[in-house]
Write a structure and sequence with these properties.
The complex is a heterodimer. By secondary structure, chain A is α+β, with helices and mostly antiparallel strands. Chain A has four helices and nine strands; from the N terminus they run E-H-E-E-H-E-E-H-E-E-H-E-E. Chain A folds into two domains: about 70 residues, Alpha-Beta Plaits (2-Layer Sandwich), CATH 3.30.70.260; about 70 residues, ACT-like. Chain A, domain 2 (Alpha-Beta Plaits, 2-Layer Sandwich). In chain A, strands 5, 6, 7, 8 and 9 form a five-stranded antiparallel sheet that branches. By secondary structure, chain B is of the alpha/beta class. Chain B has 23 helices and 20 strands. In chain B, helix 13 links the parallel strand 12 and strand 13. The relative contact order of chain B is 0.11. Classes of the chains: A alpha+beta, B alpha/beta. Chains A and B meet through helix 1 and helix 2 of A and loops of B.
């Protein structure tokens, strides 16, 4: 089963490498991995999509926790969360297919971000399965190149009841 | 008068930090990138630098010192080859959870990545084999990083930490203040076991009819041997130990079943296979212990106490995990046990297994055997020596025939299985332990892997007994070739290539002996243990084809245990 694991690490030289080294050294799979800054500059967030049975996932979480530069590990699987991925897809067009492709792009709420006399480049954002769907639909036209960012994810915020007439004090 | 803040160079800060960490010995070898440190070292009198002959030796010496004393072993080497030569020692320390801090020189920060002379990315190389490592990029970070390095190495599950020191960092100057406290939000080693889990473990143990304690090196590292002894003696519990756990419980006590696993005793393995409650204490269910995991202690309720959560449910899924310092958990567990247990039927069964298949060897043919030598060493030292074994057949015989009565007495490379460990590790142990005999035991193969460090032992007049068990073979490999590889003795026969070990010893300046006769053993050992002015080398030429029994073949079960030489065709 696929798991999305969010890891807060010290934004420090080598921290990313430690995580990657651990995964390769222990023989764990990585489907995607993305890393970027958080609201705190000295902390980075890694989002790792991995696969394995419960024992393997448990080991992955423990091994991540064991790394000294790791601050927090959250397995987002089974929690309500927001997951997004960005893809840039360059696809070939011919006379007649350009409109079809831009139409597909619109259906998926994407953008055409580049064009030349042979190819169109589309920008698509969404959950990973939406990107998979776009790729599937575009494949017959001939995909020249593709770059996917890997998943980024956050736990969904707790939905608090909104008071109708908040009393200001 | 010392002001709170002073301007010091990186090199000066380095030694001030080691002073604060109460480092007594640094095992090292100088070179270009660490010249500034060695320049400063010339005037340092609060620690002793031990010059080695190869950096691998330095790493194993630090391990030997750390294993024998429980203190952190320290290594100082130069960049590039100096650093890469320590890699085997670091990997060894990682596998056996030995607290060492390795300081490596590095080229100046502006040259890093340029393929500069004697540059190696040692931080990258050692990332998977260290508990943590650091590249110091600014002299202002140096003191904090050193403090962190010692803290990480020695707390939680101990392990090696590497600190890479670029040349310009060491040469730079900054204000020095040794941090009193360090804050690492990503590192909070768990200490106390969960109270309710411990209570539950005690309840289950109380109801056990056939309990067994399976004790690993963690008990020794945590200093929990007294708590263990209390729990065992008060409840008359059987104890089996792993290779690293030997000595955690005195092996001359009746409750000790000796070692378990591949070359463990018949009765210890039968006990594992038949127990109803198995309590693992500071051990990690290594494959040399479990054999085939699906068949390991299948009828037992398994309780696993370990400080490292990753060890739990890694190889064997357990019923009750307790994450915490095993010393603390043992004390709590002992206090929960209020009534003595009646285990007489279980003990009767264990005694029957002991009689069924004791450890034996041929004694009547007048030929010298390792087992006999080890029995004699045990007699002469009464179980009080620090025995540093190497890797192979002799190592397993040491585990079987020497009864370790104290923790930190059996030093060996268990996890990584590093041939060449014993000789330098014994040197490290000899610096740490002055009041007990230090005996290094190696095979003829492993002895040649770090033979250069004999110089270090002689120069420092360390009273180590270097014992070579010479069967002119890489004996353990030979054994496997005989049992499992169609008797193809491929590149394991050293008889035509081995040097004359007695002459080698003499050339290095050691008092040296050699014999192939059982009748000489006592006299030579008496002389050796009476001599304390320096190291001694003894070569025991033993029979070539002796095999270690019992053996549970790799990945097999207790049922497939071989207790004597069999026709391989009889095996399934």
């Amino acid at each position: 089963m696929k798991h999305t694991i969010s890891v807060l690490v010290e934004n420090r030289f080598g921290a990313f490498n430690r995580v990657a080294t651990m995964f390769s050294g222990k023989g764990f799979n990585i489907h995607s991995i993305s890393i970027g800054e958080t609201e705190t500059p000295e902390v980075s967030r890694m989002t790792i999509v991995t696969e394995g049975d419960d024992n393997i996932i448990e080991q992955i979480v423990k091994q991540l926790n064991r790394l000294i530069d790791t601050i927090k590990v959250i397995d987002l699987t089974g929690q309500t969360r927001i997951e997004r991925e960005l893809a840039l897809i360059t696809v070939f067009y011919q006379k007649g297919t350009r409109a079809e492709i831009t139409n597909i792009c619109e259906i998926f709420r994407g953008k055409v971000v580049d064009i030349n006399n042979k190819t169109l480049t589309l920008e698509i954002t969404g959950p990973p399965d939406k990107i998979d769907a776009v790729v599937n639909v575009l494949e017959p036209y001939g995909i020249k190149e593709m770059a996917r960012s890997g998943t980024v994810a956050l736990k969904r915020g707790e939905q608090l009841k909104i008071e109708k007439n908040p009393v200001t004090q | 008068m010392r002001t709170s803040k002073q301007m010091l160079s990186g090199a000066e800060i380095f030694f001030e930090c080691l002073k604060k960490e109460k480092v007594e010995y640094v095992f090292g070898f100088p070179g270009g990138a660490v010249l500034k440190l060695y320049e400063k070292l010339y005037d340092v009198d609060h620690l002793q630098h031990i010059l080695v002959r190869h950096e691998q030796g330095a790493a194993h010496m630090a391990e030997g010192y750390a294993k024998a004393t429980g203190k952190v072993g320290v290594v100082l080497v130069t960049s590039g080859p100096g650093a890469t030569n320590t890699v085997t020692g670091i990997a060894d320390a990682y596998m056996d959870s030995v607290p060492i801090v390795v300081f490596t020189g590095q080229v100046a920060t502006h040259l890093i990545g340029n393929d500069a002379f004697q540059e190696a990315d040692i931080v990258g190389i050692t990332r998977p084999i260290t508990k943590h490592n650091f590249l110091v990029r600014d002299v202002n970070e140096l003191a904090t990083i050193i403090k962190k390095a010692f803290f990480i190495a020695s707390t939680g599950r101990p392990g090696p930490v590497l600190v890479d020191l670029p040349k310009d960092v060491i040469n730079s100057v900054c204000e020095f203040e040794y941090p009193e406290k360090i804050e690492m939000r990503g590192y909070k080693p768990t200490f106390l076991g969960h109270q309710n889990q411990i209570k539950k473990a005690a309840e289950i143990l109380k109801q056990a009819k056939r309990p067994l304690l399976y004790v690993g090196g963690g008990v020794i590292m945590s200093g929990g041997h007294r708590e263990l002894k209390l729990l065992v003696k008060e409840n008359n519990l059987p104890v089996t130990m792993t290779l690293q756990g030997l000595g955690a419980f005195p092996m001359n006590e009746p409750q000790s079943l000796g070692m378990l696993g591949m070359h463990g005793t018949y009765w210890a393995n039968q006990a594992v296979n038949n127990c109803d409650v198995l309590i693992s204490l500071g051990a990690r269910f290594d494959d040399r212990v479990t054999g085939k995991v699906d068949s390991f202690a299948t009828g037992a309720y398994k309780i696993h106490v370990d400080i490292d959560p990753t060890c739990i449910d890694k190889n064997i899924i357990v019923d009750l995990p307790i994450v915490g310092d095993v010393k603390h958990v043992l004390a709590e567990l002992a206090s929960e046990m209020n009534e003595p247990m009646d285990l007489s039927d279980w003990w009767k069964q264990i005694e029957a297994w002991k009689e069924e298949c004791p450890l034996t060897y041929e004694k009547e043919d007048g030929k010298l055997r390792t087992q006999f030598v080890l029995e004699k060493i045990y007699e002469k030292t009464k179980g009080e020596a620090v025995i540093v074994s190497d890797v192979g057949q002799h190592q397993m015989w040491v585990a079987q025939y020497y009864k370790f009565n104290h923790p930190r007495s059996h030093l060996t490379s268990g996890g990584l299985g590093t041939m060449g460990f014993s000789l330098p590790a014994a040197i490290g142990a000899a610096f740490g332990v002055k009041d007990r005999p230090i005996v290094s035991i190696s095979g003829d193969g492993g002895f040649q892997m770090n033979i250069q460090e004999l110089v270090t032992a002689v120069y420092n007049k360390l009273p180590i007994k270097f014992i070579i068990i010479n069967n002119s073979f890489l004996g353990m490999v030979r054994q496997w070739q005989e049992l499992f590889h169609a008797e193809k003795y491929s590149f394991t026969d050293l008889s035509e290539s081995n040097p004359d070990f007695k002459k080698v010893g003499e050339a290095f300046g050691l008092k040296s002996y050699s014999t192939n006769s059982p009748s000489d053993v006592e006299e030579i050992l008496d002389e050796a243990f009476a001599y304390n002015e320096g190291p001694i080398l003894i070569e025991f030429k033993v029979v070539k084809e002796e095999m270690v029994f019992p053996i549970i073949p790799s990945g097999a079960t207790v049922k497939e245990m071989m207790t004597k030489r069999l026709d391989p065709k009889e095996m399934v």
